[in-house]
Amino acid sequence: MDSALLYIVMALGVSTVLNLFLKRMGVSQIIGYIITGTILVYAFDLREMNNSHTLEYIGEFGIVFLMFTIGLEISLRKMNSMKTEIFFNGAMQVIFTALVVYAVSHYIFSLESKSAIILSLAFALSSTAVVLSYLKSSKEIHNPYGQRAAGILIFQDIAVIPILIFLSFLTSEGDQSVGVILRDTFISAVIVMVLLFVVGKRVITWLLHFSASSEVDELFMGSVLFIVVAASLFASYMGFTYSLGAFVAGMVIAETKYHHKVESDIAPFKDILLGTFFIIVGMKIDVLYFIDNIGIIIGIFTLVLVLKAVIMYLLLRITSSHVLSLKTALALSQVGEFSFVIFAVASMGGLLDKELEALFILVVIFSMIVTPFFISRINKLVGRITHFEYLGLDTSDFISRKNHVILCGYSIVGKFAAKSLDKIAAPYVIIDNNPKHVQEALAEGKEAYLGDMSKLSLLEAIHAESSAGVIVTLDNMDKKRAICEAILAHTKNINLIVKVATLRDKNNLKDLDITSVIDSKEEIGRILVERMITCKLKY
Question: Which of 54, 176, 240, 398 is the most exposed place for a label (fewest CB within 10 A)?
């Protein structure tokens, strides 16, 4: 017990000091956690613990909470709108990458057939933990390129299930036919979806409602933790991954009015557990073996990165622009953490040589170490290659800004609102999640940024609480309500002006403390009467 506490204290101390130092250098904290794991292993001679199933379970829950927060971003409605990103782009990427990697490893490098299959399935996956962590922290998950990357990563996480089923069939212990395995998996999937989306939604909504109405933060937080862990354990019991259960639970909560509060409350737990995952990754590093084989490791990593980037770019060009395809391909060109699981299962089943497993694991770790340095520079790299103007938000511009108007949406109504603001010389900034609208505003010489106003982090960045008011001109009712809820949660003392098109939309916003709701049809009727009264009557 004393030793365990010592290891925990050392892990917290070393990771904190390292990350404070690395933060000043602009290096991702992921690197600090990985280095912490390696330091602990060699400082306390814990090499026998780097294969501990208990530690792996603890680390895996970092991925669980990360996938839960992604589920909060993607409701069923949104997943339906992301069918192309998830099911077409995702499926094509996994299938074609696996086929190409298999062909290269088996026919060019003469790797044994079963080992080549394992390698191709593992290297077809990208790093959910690294990529989604960056996309969320940089707010790029709400951009078109971030949406495409997130969609492919979601499919990859789902694809882990059939991959593991396939591996179990390949092992000598697999005594069931493929048909039986697929039938049982399909039945289990139906049961999980029905229970979580039908029964689970009612239970989750009821639990969140009563815990929120208690106005005791720890009870609400306890309810959220219970929901995440229970859904994860249920999915695992039915033969799926923990993270898939958490992802579905997040999607269920995304359909409720509590998803913004849940997302902000769960963030510290997700970040701590994700740090634990990377510490455990660092514990797997055999420094001497890594030094002896560094040339081979870097060579394999470079080859995989180039192959995956080219394959993904070519596939994405079918449905996306050159810039979006290139950015997404580069962001997902690394190897992911689920490869550890695939290599471990294959090795235990006698499908992969131990020495090859050790080498491939170091390739994955090297990939995860390099990726945080690489992914944060993708926008600059693509900008130099394509001369594309990145539409990111420089938050330093808003530090001292006050009494500015925030115009949310730059479609038809937004353009007229901007003209009226120009006439009275009012300072304003345009925020829109449509790149086309932002480009139009920039071309007209206006200050505009790409972003999602329903995100608390963006509201903090643009100092919404210091603004003179927020004008919401969007048409989508769900997005409009989400933005209003986020703004009112961020600050109550704000002028919030919202345009609606129907009485139904107006009623949907009635429960929110909005300063003014403008019904476009009602306003047109009023103006018509005013113009009639002011006209000179003709006899």
Answer: 54
The amino acid at 4: A
Chunked in runs of 10, what are the mean pLDDT values of the chain (539 residues)? 67 80 72 82 71 65 74 71 81 92 90 88 87 76 77 83 73 58 72 79 83 78 85 80 79 78 73 76 81 91 93 87 84 85 75 82 85 82 68 54 86 89 89 82 83 76 82 86 85 84 82 84 78 64
- Which three-class secondary structure state does DSSP give residue 316? helix
Run of H or E residues at 361: helix 354-375
Tokens 């709400």 correspond to 142
Secondary structure percentages of the chain, helix, strand, coil, to 5: 70, 5, 25
Tokens of 137: 């922290």
What is the side-by-side strand order in the sheet with 469-472? 448-450, 428-432, 405-408, 469-472, 496-500, 516-519
User: Which residues make Cβ contacts (< 8 Å) with residue 119, sequence separation at least 6?
Assistant: 101, 102, 105, 111, 360
- Cα 472 to Cα 453: distance, rounded to the nearest angstrom: 10
Q: Using alpha carbons only, how large is the chain's radius of gyration in Å?
A: 26
Within 13 A of 38's CA, how many CA atoms are on the CB side?
17
β-bridge partners, 122: none
Interatomic CA distance for residues 50 and 31, integer angstroms: 18
Check residue 479 and give its pLDDT.
Answer: 84
Rounded CA gap, 29 and 34, in Å? 9
Give the chain's domains with CATH numbers: 1-40 (no CATH), 50-386 (1.20.1530.20), 395-534 (3.40.50.720)
Which residue is listed with tokens 């995440």?
Answer: 228
Query: What pLDDT was estimated at residue 369?
Result: 81
Predicted confidence at residue 124, as pLDDT, reads 92
Q: What is the pLDDT of residue 26?
A: 62
